[in-house]
Amino acid sequence: MRKFRWVRRLLVFTLSIVLCLTNFAFAEQVTIPEEVLATLQAMGFSDIESAMQAYGVTSIDELLLLLQQAETMMPAQEEAVPEERTFDGKVLATMEMEASAEEIYTFFTELLEIPIQDFICYPTVNEALMALKTGKVDTLLSMDANATFMAQMDPTLYLYMDPRLRDYNDISFSMVVLATNPELCQELNEAIAYLKENGILDALTMAMIKGTLAEIPPYEADKTLYVGVTGDIPPIDYVDESGMPVGFNVNLMSQIGVYLGYKIEFVQLSKNAIIAALASGKIDVVFWQEQSLSPEMLALLGVRSDAIISTDPYLIMSITAIELK
Q1: Are 204 and 44 a contacting pair, CB within 8 Å?
Q2: Rounded distance between C-alpha atoms, residue 216 and residue 41, angstroms
Q3: How many Å apart are CA 257 and CA 286, to the nearest integer?
Q4: Which of 38, 126, 198, 297 could cross-link to 291 by cystine, CB 3.0-4.6 Å?
Q5: Cβ within 8 Å of residue 295, ≥6 positions away
């Protein structure tokens, strides 16, 4: 249902874009606003003509009509009856976090009263997935976009969520800078607000969910922002076959760079080293994830300190359990 809500939101937003473009077509020598072109780019189109070509139409009016019909023609989706699974008696795993495996085990068994057998943290998602495949763990916990990404590549995986984790399973993603640089934090917040207001953030999110995220060309500028990435959470943040950082976070920061006038340099670091790199000044910004609804988990993770400050959230994902079918 989450995916179809994004589809409907994207259709509505796309309709508003086309309506604007239709109005511009009646005026002579009207320049298309930069935010419209940026949105089309975020959706994977380099210009309006390529969007019309992709939809097989020759005019904006035809494109508008096609998009108006798209939602009404969308077939009704039958709700699949999920298999009943729980975490009871299982060995759970996830990627390494600021909290130790023992602290997370305590969180499940004492705070949530879920009788799990054990909890293990792995350095990378690939190692955690291998542990699941070899039977070392029963369940792997990950973000829903990451879980869906893996399930699309491997049909032997089954996705679900224990209902007792419902109030704790939303993770907000923010950016973190040093507390000594509040001006940069304010700049990033302004950029996030701009991308939200103009629908670019929604378009990027939808493209990530659909698996159609197109790489955004680098933007050249006189000032440079060094951004740390781990490459551990595809498709949010990962490394392509050539070893280059790609994914949602990279595209998002590229859009922010264009808006703020920064050249973005991505620095790949391990999760354990990324905060140290920020503290030493090697990088200016890191991406951060934290439990948005659980004060208890925030206390466990210890993500707040006097040394760093977080931007407003730019993405919220849910935790999903991954098991073998």
Answers
A1: no
A2: 8
A3: 14
A4: 297
A5: none
Spatial contact of 35 and 198, defined as CB atoms under 8 Å apart: yes
- Grouping H, G, I as helix, E, B as strand and the rest as coil, residue 143 is strand
Q: Rounded distance, CA 46 to CA 297, Å?
A: 42
Confidence class of residue 45 from pLDDT cuts 50, 70 and 90? low
What's 170-317's CATH class? Answer: alpha beta
DSSP assignment of 14-26: HHHHHHHHHHHHT
Burial of 268 (0-12, 13-18, 19+ CB in 10 A): middle
Band (pLDDT 50/70/90 cuts) for residue 30 is very low
Asked if 202 contacts 216 with a C-beta cutoff of 8 angstroms, the reply is no
Bridge partners, 285 (sequence order) = 227
On whether the CB atoms of residues 224 and 265 are closer than 8 A, the answer is yes
Q: Is the peptide bond before 235 cis (omega within 30 degrees of 0)?
A: yes
Q: What CA–CA distance (Å, rounded) separates 320 from 299?
A: 22
Could you please report the per-residue DSSP string of 244-281?
-EESHHHHHHHHHHHHHTEEEEEEE--HHHHHHHHHHT
60 neighbors 25 (Cβ within 8 angstroms): yes
* Start and end residues for every CATH 3.40.190.10 domain found in the chain: 170-317
> Could you give the CA distance from residue 261 to residue 225 in angstroms, rounded to a whole number?
10
Q: Token pair for residue 122?
A: 């792995």
Q: Is 261 left (phi over 0), alpha (psi -120 to 50) or beta?
A: left
What confidence tens digit (pLDDT) does each residue in 165-177 have? 877 777 889 999 9
Please determine, for residue 6, whether its predicted confidence score (pLDDT) is greater than 70: no
Q: What is the DSSP letter of 292?
A: S
Q: Which residues, other chains included, contact 197 with Cβ-Cβ below 8 Å and sequence gap of 6+?
A: none
CA dihedral 193, 304, 301, 205 (to 10 degrees): 10
According to CATH, the topology of domain 91-168 is: D-Maltodextrin-Binding Protein; domain 2 (3.40.190)
